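User: structure tokens for this one?
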Amino acid sequence: MTRPGEPPSDPASSGLTRSGWLLIGVLLALLALAVALAVRAWTAGAELAGEAGDIPLAGGLALLLGVVGTLALGGGLMALVFFSARSGHDDAVQDEARLERRRQGADREGGGYAPGED
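Assistant:
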């Protein structure tokens, strides 16, 4: 265990490697490119439509709330998926389903099922 401000004793435990930082840099550059293209397309559409094509303030707020709400919902659902997978609740359901399939298979084959045969 290292104290705050001390370098870690194991370089592998220091966090991201050089390739990890490179990946983050590339992804941030792609994000910046996507935002720049979106702004360019948005402003080009406004120039073509003229003054009458501008989105009113209420429409812009509704669009912003819709995007933020959708991203929050998606992120929340993904967090629940990861939490559920790590907590072990899914394992019990999968074990029950596996036992039920074994019971049904044993019944079709004419053999009996003994609980200790897992």
